[in-house]
Amino acid sequence: MKRMLSLAGWSVGALFLLITLISSFLPRHVRVSRAIDIQYPSDSVQAVLKSAAYWETVLPEGTSFRIQSQSDSSFHCVINSKSAIQMAAGYQVFVGTAGSSCSVQRYYDFYFDWYPWEKFSSLLVEAKFGLALENELQQLKKRLAP
To answer: Reduced to 3 states, what is the DSSP secondary structure of residue 58?
Structure first.
């Protein structure tokens, strides 16, 4: 019986080390981004994107955020959620050649700890948040449409 318990303990330990080793090849930082072309002046688009009301509709209810950096064409905020995974969001606006159109790139940044279950969850982030970003950009385009 003692031999079986010892074998089970060593097996669980070896399996944990193997999973941790495999997860070390996964990135700690993942950025999910989507872009859309909008036939609207960049000043109007940036005015909507810089408003706190926009971010309150985009982020889940009750989520607080802190602006980390802001310029004429970009914005980056850190999301203070109660989850273990650190998250940030932002956008960049690229002005078109004619000036009457622009491209908007929205992104979410995720920062994972070394724990294997967090690193493996990074594989699912693209599928979950990519679709959400596409929907947010389509809503932005509809919001700006005359």
So the answer is: helix
Give residue 8's identity as a one-letter amino acid code.
A
21 lies in some domain? no
Q: Which helix (H) or strand (E) holds 113?
A: none
* CA distance linking residue 59 with residue 62, whole number of Å: 8
In a domain, 76, yes or no: yes
pTM, entire model: 0.78
126 is a domain residue: yes
* Domains held by the chain: number: 1
Q: List Cβ neighbours of 83 (8 Å cut-off, separation of 6 or more).
A: none
pLDDT in tens, 33-61: 999 988 888 888 888 888 777 777 777 66
Decide if 101 contacts 38 (C-beta within 8 A). Answer: yes
Residue 3 lies in a domain: no
